[in-house]
Amino acid sequence: MSGLAIETCGLTYHFGNQKVVDNLSLKVEKGSIYGFLGPNGAGKTTTIKILLNLLKSPADSVFIFGKDISTNRIASLKRMGALVEQPAIYAHLSGKENLYNRCILLGTPRSRAAEMLALVGLTEAADKKAGKYSLGMKQRLGIALALLGDPELLLLDEPTNGLDPNGIIEIRNLMIELTSKHNKTILVSSHLLAEIERIATHVGIINKGQLLFQGTINELQTLNKPVVEIETDAIEATLGILAAEGYTPEQIKTGTIQIPYTSKAETGRINTVLVQGGNTISSIHLVRKDLEHLFLDITKPN
Ligand SMILES: Nc1ncnc2c1ncn2[C@@H]1O[C@H](COP(=O)(O)OP(=O)(O)OP(=O)(O)O)[C@@H](O)[C@H]1O
């Protein structure tokens, strides 16, 4: 990876009196899958619209591949493809016809339509009316439309929202293929930490318009250390054994203790020690923090 596909400096946006994006400085490396993570209403869609120059404020400072979008609007937009909210699809036209229409608008050869249908796995459904597509197929058609002009950078706003598990896996695999085989850079927004952790190389976490964390997936995982959760009625005895084993157990609620996770083998060993100590363990399992708890950790003063 070299250079930045997106850089913003102090991005700020208001809807009336509400500050929706607050001093946001994003850095998206070329070739990365940048997971743009935040709860509903955090300001993700608004930020993506600013990146696409669909919304503007006087404080905007957006660089696409190193060029200021305000002075290089057309050239910058040509290098970007986007899927924001619902894909703009004509329901009465087939998938292929939807792509042909866009080819005419872009002045792209029609042959590109078949290529894009193949890339997103819609070749067999090419002649079916897009209105009859499943939600996942519509999202994939939306991505095919965004890819028609061969942009280097894709902005995908919650592309897996509302999809069933299969649909989610298909979109996930498509994003991985687009970066690994087709050299795209992807910024993908989501409100689901687990979803982003599976595919992203880099992550930006936003809440109430502010960037709380930005870094590589490894840096996020260092922050988001998993724990082993143990459920037992014999709390005192279990705490005693774990402390004797060198752990710093934490009782998080009645009957539930957490210790830092190290490995599967170590979790098994702890289970054996506890059971051999005469304790009934009703559950022992790995737990990862959800977004809400991660926010608490990030914002907690050191
Ligand atoms: N056109 C608008 N007019 C007024 N307020 C708006 C408008 N669009 C968004 N907002 C408000 O701006 C805030 C951020 O919205 P935004 O859609 O950017 O968040 P988001 O992180 O994308 O959330 P979601 O996942 O729910 O789409 C919300 O409080 C929302 O109500």
UniProtKB/TrEMBL annotation:
Task: Name all ABC transporter domain ranges.
Answer: 6-233
Give the matching Pfam families.
ABC_tran (PF00005)
Q: Which GO MF term does the entry hold, naming one?
A: ATP hydrolysis activity
Give the superkingdom in one word.
Bacteria
Keyword tags: ATP-binding, Nucleotide-binding, Transport
Similarity comment: family membership: Belongs to the ABC transporter superfamily.
Protein name per Swiss-Prot or TrEMBL: ABC-2 type transport system ATP-binding protein
Which organism is this protein's natural source?
Answer: Pedobacter duraquae
Q: What is the lineage of its organism?
A: Bacteria, Pseudomonadati, Bacteroidota, Sphingobacteriia, Sphingobacteriales
